[in-house]
Description:
CATH topology of the largest domain: Alkaline Phosphatase, subunit A
Helix content: 25-40%
CATH architecture of the largest domain: 3-Layer(aba) Sandwich
CATH class of the largest domain: Alpha Beta
Strand content: 15-25%
Number of helices: 17
CATH superfamily of the largest domain: Alkaline Phosphatase, subunit A
Structural class: alpha/beta
Radius of gyration: 22 Å
Amino acid sequence: MTRRIMLFELNEVPWRIVDEFVADHPNSALARLLPRSRCYTSIAADRGHLSPWTTWPTLHRGVNDEQHMISAFGQDRTEADTSFPPVWRMLRGAGVSVGVCGSLHSFPTPPDLDGYAFYLPDPFATESTAHPADLVPFQEFQLMMVRASARNVDTAVPRDAALKFLRTSHRIGVRAGTYAALAGQLAAERRRPWLSTRRRSMQAMVAFDVYAKALADTRPAFSTFFTNHVASAMHRYWAAGHPGDYDEIGLSDDWMQRYRAEVPWAMGRADRMIARLAAFADDNPDYELWIASSMGQGPTMAQSLETQLYLQDPGLFLAGIAGVPETGWTRRPAMNPQCNVRIEPAYVAAVEAALRTVTVAGAPLVFRQSTDGFFSMDWGQPNLHDRPDAVCVAGQPHAPATLGLETVEIEERSDTTAYHVPQGVLAIYDPQDPTPGPAGRRDVSVLEVAPAILHTFGVTVPGYMQEPGVLARELVPHSVGTF
């Protein structure tokens, strides 16, 4: 029988968070599925800084960061896409039906877009291209919301884009229950404004409705769905639920109590999505559900964060440090506090030299450069609101506003209380496999995932990838059929 795979990309979630959720929710979908699944601890394979912008391309392409060289949104990926294409492009090229929903670096869209069952690029795309056309209003609305909300959640809603999306939402699968949840969220925010942070999960719920309908309508052999909402909650609120992880806690008791339930709440939303996919697999047993993260998170520090330094006007900054005119640069997608730009060739050398002289609170500005004039800068320096001389260029202090910088107040007053670690999750639920996997969770490199997927569909694994390893060997043997 032909096998089909739904790849649920649960960004940055480690087994510890999953296990705690299952222990506290014995009737959850995860509590039911995991004992019947083959479970592994996925290990990130990257050599540089662990970041989802890098670790997901590693999982999707079967090579690590030293080969694919992808480190940020907006980077020119022409060479990487040619040499190490993502698994969905390889499958589609082999005639496998494919659907993509939100996977990182799925924009720009492939040239054969109409050949996909559905294709909704990641929410950091620079334009609202999607397939089929009914998905375009949702993508347009999603992009506007993501651009407005970075470290803080913007409670404003782009009215025109929202109305355009609402007129088409029923056709693309947004359910009445999701609208009820959205209405409940808005009502809750009126009583407790701090709950606006949960809007990140609301976006994921709507996107999942879109994916679930597209999946049911088109039934591709391989499809992906990406969600970041649990990762977002863990970064901010890990300390509230795990105070024992820290030698010192610089957060108030009120803060700890207020946000204690946020990570489990976000996991609950993910569990509902997983329940729907598991039910779909049970009804269509040629489908397998793969739940994967490309890395995990673990505790860092539990300290108060009042402000972060953001680059709000890159044009003013580039003109101020290197004399770059407005025509000499373009912005590339990124999420605060990162800022990505592409510099025209005539100004690349000047920008690189100037950036090497920038310091913030005495530390050099961290930035990365690619060969096509792409620069990615790491801002977000904490609690500089009373340090007007903190930013220096070539040793000379500059008022932040004169360089397009702003110290932005952080709504929940917490720093990153958890950050990236190599260990993630991988669980494979196959309704046709009556036996669970071996006891324990063996470590598997994320480099095994792409070749295992290709192997499942009978697609030749390219020589630059690892040979199909423990994952491929342990999957239930099956024949390859028509896709």
